[in-house]
Amino acid sequence: MSSQGKGAVFQDSGRVVIVGASLAGLRAAETLRAEGFRGHLTLIGNEPYLPYDRPPLSNAVLTGWVPAEHTTLPWRETLADVEWRLGVAATGLDLSAKQVRLADGYTVEFDRLLIATGTRARPWPNQAEAELEGVFTLRGRDDAKLLQQRLAAKPHRVLVMGGGFTGSEIASACCELGLPVTIVERGAAPLVGALGGTIAERVATLQRQHGVDLRCGVMVTSLEGDAQGRLCRAHLSDGSTIDTEVAVVALGAIRNTEWLRDSGLAAGTFGVGCDAGCRAFDINAIVTDDVFVAGDVARFPHPLYHYQFLSLEHWGNAVEQATVAAHNMVCAPTARRPHVAVPAFWSSQFGVNIKSVGVPSAASEVVITQGDLASASFVAAYGKAGQLVAAVTFNHAKWVEFYQRLLEQAAPFPPKIPGAFQPTLSSPAPAAFPDPIRGPNPTHEATVVLTGHDPNERRVQWIPRPRAT
Ligand SMILES: Cc1cc2nc3c(=O)[nH]c(=O)nc-3n(C[C@H](O)[C@H](O)[C@H](O)COP(=O)(O)OP(=O)(O)OC[C@H]3O[C@@H](n4cnc5c(N)ncnc54)[C@H](O)[C@@H]3O)c2cc1C
């Protein structure tokens, strides 16, 4: 039965405010209108642009195929009457007054609020070095445009600091452009935090086959500029140096939760905690009624992973979670839906289409169920304690749905695959994820993080009980 059929409670009037005018914010706004919400709808975004798509920024935009301005996300006509407040950041949230404070001094009142403020690129830790001309990060449209222009000017070498998905995609774009590129990765191999050592070793080979100067197990310790403040050299922890005039900082993402610091919500390093129905938790882990969370900034429990909390940086999750959050914002309490989609993401790099379903980093073992590891065309199934927890395909995208169904059924590991396949690694091997204590830890965290609790978030307010007299 639809939410309306069950007696929707919040449809004709009221004010919904969405903070974060990007993928999750936009899809939530569309869903609100599709679910029949006719009240006032405001989208607040600190970027000056209407919502745009980020995945093309690290490939099609960098290679010059798509101008950065052409990444605007399409949206439905039903949003014609939305109030856009763009180019202004939310700086605070007053839960009791139900107000969002803005950087321009205004406040915006809400009846229901959706937090969709996503993540930003982690900057180079030394500010003076980060400000050298030629040092870039990549998160937004302006970043991509500047980097594209710089790559088009044919630098003699590009240094990518961090071999996670973004760093590897940037390096792949450089190879497409015929530019010499070096990746410096602190972990044992690129993508090791996301895919584990066994598969990441294959990624390392792939990158080297495409000409990447890949240096693993080392870090960039400092960046050196010339007298004009232009980057000229990077110093590495093994004592070596790399002469380069372009460096891209690809050290992962930071969740945009600072504006919620004093709000009383459970907002921290891994995002804003919420229940499976996307309702935000306060710092006492009590669920709020009128504040919802979606997208990269959300941290939510997932039944397939024993209700541990997931923090994802996945396009598909932003869309799905925003849809569920928006539905739950306006439906009757009995019609609420849980956000239980199996996590999924994709990446295109070095001619390989990588797709992942589930949470590979939750695994202790991996097995190649189809294809051939050596040819970079295979399916890797990940398992823990006899249960399938993820599958990653390299140029085997048509199998993703099959594994997704297995994951939804909490299928056993190793999985039984129909047909006659000749896998190259047919018995489980260690997945070889880095030990978070012993390391070496990758430069870039996985784009999916599973946490039982956030150790930084022990901010519970003890409210003394009134004494019995
Ligand atoms: C280069 C790149 C490549 C990617 N490639 C892939 C891919 O191949 N596959 C995949 O699955 N995912 C990919 N992703 C991830 C995907 O784009 C994200 O998961 C998705 O954008 C998340 O959407 P979101 O709306 O939750 O957050 P975001 O897109 O981060 O949007 C949040 C918005 O809120 C704004 N904001 C932040 N703080 C405030 C504030 N205080 N006040 C107002 N506004 C604020 C931000 O500026 C931003 O506009 C990629 C991301 C990048 C950067």
Task: Write the topology of this structure.
Blueprint: E1 15-19, H1 23-34, E2 40-45, E3 83-86, E4 90-94, E5 99-102, E6 107-109, E7 112-115, E8 119-121, H2 127-130, E9 135-137, H3 141-152, E10 158-161, H4 165-176, E11 181-185, H5 192-195, H6 197-209, E12 213-216, E13 220-225, E14 231-236, E15 241-243, E16 246-249, E17 253-255, E18 267-268, E19 271-273, E20 279-281, E21 287-293, E22 298-302, E23 308-312, H7 315-330, E24 344-349, E25 352-358, E26 365-372, E27 377-384, E28 387-394, H8 400-408, E29 429-430, E30 448-451
Parallel strand pairs: 1-2, 1-7, 2-3, 7-21, 9-16, 10-11, 10-16, 11-12, 19-22
Antiparallel strand pairs: 4-5, 5-6, 8-17, 13-14, 14-15, 18-19, 20-21, 22-23, 23-30, 24-25, 25-28, 26-27, 26-29, 27-28
Helix pairs in contact: 1-7
Bound molecules: flavin-adenine dinucleotide.
Residues 19-25, 44-47, 54-55, 57-58, 89-90, 116-119, 138-139, 166, 256, 259, 295-296, 313-316, 318, 345-347 line the site of flavin-adenine dinucleotide.
